[in-house]
Amino acid sequence: MSVDLRSDTVTRPTGAMREAMARAPVGDDVYGEDPTVNELQEFAAALLGKERALYLPSATMSNQVAVLAHTERGDELFCDVDAHVYGAEAGSPAMLAGVMCHTLPAVGGIVAADVLEAAIRPANIHHPRPRLLTLENTHNGAALHPDRLAATVAVARAHGLSIHLDGARLFNAAVALNLSARTLTEPVDSVTVCLSKGLGAPMGALLAGSNAFIERALRYRKALGGGLRQAGIVAAGGLFALRHHVERMADDHRRARTLASALSGLPGMRVVEAEVPTNMVMVDLDGASGPLVDQGRGVGVLFGSMGPGRLRLVTHLDVDDAGIAAAADFFTKVARERRGA
Ligand SMILES: *Cc1c(COP(=O)(O)O)cnc(C)c1O
């Protein structure tokens, strides 16, 4: 029995998804003539409550195209110091858009309104132009209710900032909060959704926003080499995922909670609690995470570390109840051996 809890990116397309992909009508999407890509984009725009959506190869490209389309060189982007856009996308805001990232401390993924307010400099020839706020939902596996973001959003609006939501796992948040995706995207100008994480498509992401914004984004997508041709083959996987794999995320969340409660009683481990958890279990260890990751791999229980003393276990489409039981067994044995040692 092996189980892969490293990330929800490891999911493989199901048989039914592969069939939908094989059957998909296609055309040249750079000409706007791929019917499946067009259907996916229209379906996603409605789901996300925006005028238009654009299919891109990855959520990283989607976020960076959004940064490019919202800013000019020298503008200032405000984000949480842990933001994926800032710290996990190869320095692209600087490399590609030439913007300054002004990182701010956050609690549970939320930059407080007064922290943002204090960081925004007045208009003055000496200052960078404050232009964009990025948010993330889910953030490290925690779903953020829009009410908890409202004060920060209001400060951004009062200063004329645009707002981009990195919703790589937006549907996990929607399912966990029992809210529609469009309720979560209503306060923001643009949103990225990853199709290749918990949704289970082999690749792809969506960027949604106003018509004018997507018109600019289309040009940057092309500039970055993201204009694809018969992309309907893979877009069909994304469309299938949005139709069939959203509600089932509740199963991933339930399994993550089962795993969390199995681990929470074990000596030397502390489960990090989120107000509204989704498909991730974060565990702080008394010791180092690296050796435990290696030990797990040796017996087919795969998971990752988030820094020297923290583990991350992620549930997804390819993890079932037996996989959760195997992981719980592994950690129980480890705890027992340690106590005996
Ligand atoms: C995974 C992730 C991305 C990037 O997604 P890719 O499709 O791997 O490029 C962006 N933001 C967040 C919050 C993510 O978790």
Describe the protein's topology.
Blueprint: E1 3-4, H1 15-23, H2 35-48, E2 52-56, H3 59-70, E3 75-80, H4 84-87, H5 92-97, E4 100-104, H6 113-119, E5 129-136, H7 146-158, E6 162-166, H8 170-177, H9 181-185, E7 190-194, E8 205-209, H10 211-223, H11 232-244, H12 249-264, E9 269-271, E10 280-285, H13 289-298, E11 301-302, E12 304-305, E13 310-314, H14 321-340
Parallel strand pairs: 1-11, 3-4, 3-5, 5-6, 6-7
Antiparallel strand pairs: 2-8, 7-8, 9-10, 10-13, 12-13
Helix pairs in contact: 1-11, 2-11, 3-10, 6-7, 12-14
Bound molecules: pyridoxal-5'-phosphate (PLP).
State the strand order across the main sheet.
Answer: 2-8-7-6-5-3-4
CATH fold naming of the largest domain: Aspartate Aminotransferase, domain 2
Estimate the helix proportion, in percent: 40-55%
Oligomeric grouping of the chains = single chain
Summing up helix and strand content along with how strands pair, one would put the structural category as: alpha/beta
Total number of beta strands: 13
Give the termini separation: 26 Å
Strand content: 15-25%
Instruction: Examine the secondary-structure arrangement and name the CATH architecture of the largest domain.
Output: 3-Layer(aba) Sandwich
Largest sheet: 7 strands, mixed
CATH class annotation of the largest domain: Alpha Beta
Bound molecules: pyridoxal-5'-phosphate
- Shape summary: globular
Tell me the CATH superfamily of the largest domain: Type I PLP-dependent aspartate aminotransferase-like (Major domain)
Number of domains: 2
Uncertain runs are none
Number of helices, counting only DSSP H or I runs of 4 residues or more: 14
